[in-house]
Amino acid sequence: MTETAPEPRASFAPSAPKPKPAASVLSSDITISGNIRSSGDIQIEGNVEGDVRSQVVIVGEAATIQGEIVAEEVVVHGRVVGRLRGIKIRLSATARVEGDIVHKTIAIENGAHFEGSVHRQDDPIGQGQPARITGPSRQSGALAEATP
């Protein structure tokens, strides 16, 4: 009887998940005219005249965005003139938004100013079915939250 040596097995160590890169920060002294697209997170402290598309977009308290924001998560502390589309949208107490919001979940903190319409949609950042209108709103001051 002849014994054969076991075949060598490749040892693959499971790779550790890559750490999430730090957010790209556009400081308060920057003004961008044009669209911004990122596969990561963006924190905007300056001014943008154009659309912003990213995983997470944080609009700083002194920032102004004139254009559409599309992200999985949008947090607004500053001013946005344009449409917001996101899975999770939060308007902080210092937010000033003039435009429509298409969301899956939304939170509007006490003190936020919002003028536009709110639409709930299961896939607000994709090309899903038309948005379900929850009604036009002029929100100022009250905490409001809607979830699926």
Task: Give me a quick take on this structure.
With 148 residues, the chain is mainly beta. Helix content is 0%, strand content 51%.
Folded structure, characterized:
- The chain has 148 residues and is mainly β.
- It is 0% helix and 51% strand.
- It has no helices and 15 strands.
- The chain has strands spanning 24-26, 31-33, 36-37, 41-44, 47-49, 52-59, 64-66, 69-76, 79-81, 84-91, 96-98, 101-108, 113-120, 132-140, 144-146.
- It has a 15-stranded mixed sheet that branches.
- The protein is globular, with a radius of gyration of 21 Å.
- The protein starts with 23 loop residues before the first strand and ends with a strand.
- Residues 127-148 have low confidence and may be disordered.
List the helices and strands and how they pair.
Layout (H helix, E strand, L loop, with lengths): L23 E3 L4 E3 L2 E2 L3 E4 L2 E3 L2 E8 L4 E3 L2 E8 L2 E3 L2 E8 L4 E3 L2 E8 L4 E8 L11 E9 L3 E3 L2
Parallel strand pairs: 1-4, 2-5, 3-6, 4-6, 5-7, 6-8, 7-9, 8-10, 9-11, 10-12, 11-13, 12-13
Antiparallel strand pairs: 12-15, 13-14
Q: What class, by secondary structure content?
A: mainly beta
The number of distinct helices, counting runs of at least 4 residues, comes to 0
Radius of gyration: 21 Å
Strand content: over 45%
Order of helices and strands: EEEEEEEEEEEEEEE
Percent range of helical residues = under 10%
Shape: globular
Alpha-carbon distance between the termini?
68 Å
How many β-strands, per DSSP?
15
Largest pleated sheet: 15 strands, mixed
Unreliable sequence segments: 127-148
Mean pLDDT across the residues is 83
